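Hello again, I could really use a second opinion on something today. I've dropped the whole record in just underneath, so have a look.
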Amino acid sequence: MVLNGAHSDDTISEQNDSTAGNALYKTMEGSIQRIFMEHEGFSYALDVETGQLIQAGADGVTICPEEGKICLRLGVPADRQTIFSEELPADGAENEIAADSPTPVPRGNENDGSPAKELAAGSSGSFHHRNEKTCPAEREIAVPEASHHTSLAAAKVFQVPPMAPVMEPKSCLFPAGSTPRIHLHAPEPGEIHYTLDGTAPTKDSPCYSSPLELSGDTVIRAGLFLPDGRYSEIVSSEYHFTVPGLVLTSSTRFDPRPVFRGNGIADFLEPLRGSLDYLDGRWRGTLQNLEICGQLPGLIPVEQITVGFLSHHRSGIIYPEYLELYTGPDAQHLAFTAKLEIPCRPCPREIARQDFSLPVRENIGAFRFVAHRYAKMPQWCCYKGSTGVFTMADNVYCTPL
């Protein structure tokens, strides 16, 4: 089986039952193939079980092997059944169990309404795992015989959280003076609660009932909350207002691949912002310093000029080393205005995007923005010492004063 990931260093392999370290889940009806995947230095294991296709459509697919079994859920029409999982904690003396020793039988908490979990000792270092409520068919988990000790934790049952609300449009730019409306959609019944100040919403935050009208830069965060206490992932979108009528030019040569070149510098004025996926078609990439020259429709008071950048050092993409801004009444009379040195260090997350702003605070008619890339990848990067340092940016906007 071959699955093509977004990055060239993705490796996905399908292992057979005889492979050392391979875990095989067996049921009374058949088997589940475990697929191992390595990506960005992390290992993943995916269990794939065939089953009856019970629903398919434009919004997604639902596959359900049998009532009460784990389902493959893709898109909106997915079943919401209880999911079973085993968790392996860090190795510790209290959790290490000899493969041929009796296996403890942890029980569910009778007071919290969770079903009992049974782990009965099996032969050849195997153990059985049954959920009497949701898994009528017995599942056997084969532990590799080569292992002398196995770290185990009590299995737990948890409810699938609801799907997150959808914002339309997502993060984007609007012309100054407009009053756009943002629509929030719930993929299933529940209440959408939101905030407009960038803080995480709770069930006590305002409840969405009609489109949100914006008049200035705003960060909207929202989540779907259900009556049973479950809530979705919190989603966020940023909306900024820019001086309309900008005309951009650039001497920078962009990557020749269409996904990174697009329409070149003209795409920096498109309203939609880039996501954390550098292949989403919204990022413009270059191996040169990024130069953006802008002509405003007249002398206009500008607070700051901002450009969004992407960082994903395992793919050779990092923030610029420093930024410079030159402004003036026209393109022939530009003067140095500001400089911003970006800290040379890893981002808090492996993949990150960030807007960097340089102050203006005066009337201008033109500007020149330059993002200076590193000559070589810094030592903390995956490709340290390489001269192939990619700069990727999505939009430029001028905030009116």
About this structure: The first strand starts at residue 11 and ends at 14.
